[in-house]
């Protein structure tokens, strides 16, 4: 009985921190969603800077989460924070993409979140959580490609297309055993297709030449 009660207490403590993390993640998402609106393109650097400040809060909250359960029982309680961690990976990856149009590494995300990349070193970023977050980034970029055209930016969809195709090639090399990850990966095919349609549309209208200066 005592063990069960202690277990419940731990889960309750974890839940409280996870709720706070979810709230911070929502604030970062709301902030970054602004890039999809026309004027948002002008203040991308400002939005990224603000988002990085919010990640300071995330680090504090994750620090607190680490103290709520025995260090060697990460996977016992993993399902409590798995979803919010995947969302935070996506948000960190989106910020890095907006800043430099590169794919954030797992090590770099772990650093942004203030946690470990290596399982041996404690509270870490699970590889499947990292991959899940990256797949969410792909659908966000498909949306950004469409909205870039609306905002009159014709070169961004071409760069997004190159990026997503490289991402897709990378995922093809993986042997995905995890079911939810496989399902998410299936969604990537639609994102690739959606972006290809945008690029095709631009080429038909002759706008891709304008974008590449050709």
From TrEMBL:
Listed under GO biological process in this entry are: RNA metabolic process
Specify whether Zinc is a keyword of the entry: no
Tell me, in one coarse class, where this protein mainly resides.
cytoplasm
Q: Which GO terms describe its molecular function?
A: endonuclease activity; hydrolase activity; metal ion binding; RNA binding; sequence-specific DNA binding; single-stranded DNA binding
Q: Where in the cell is it found?
A: Cytoplasm; Nucleus
**Record keywords:** Cytoplasm, DNA-binding, Endonuclease, Hydrolase, Magnesium, Metal-binding, Nuclease, Nucleus, RNA-binding
GO CC annotation terms, alphabetical: cytoplasm; nucleus
At which positions is Mg(2+) bound?
Answer: 140
Q: Which domain of life is it from?
A: Eukaryota
The UniProt similarity line reads: Belongs to the translin family.
Q: How does it assemble?
A: Ring-shaped heterooctamer of six TSN and two TSNAX subunits, DNA/RNA binding occurs inside the ring.
- Function (record text): Exhibits both single-stranded and double-stranded endoribonuclease activity. May act as an activator of RNA-induced silencing complex (RISC) by facilitating endonucleolytic cleavage of the siRNA passenger strand. DNA-binding protein that specifically recognizes consensus sequences at the breakpoint junctions in chromosomal translocations, mostly involving immunoglobulin (Ig)/T-cell receptor gene segments. Seems to recognize single-stranded DNA ends generated by staggered breaks occurring at recombination hot spots.
The protein in question is named Translin
Q: Which gene encodes it?
A: Tsn
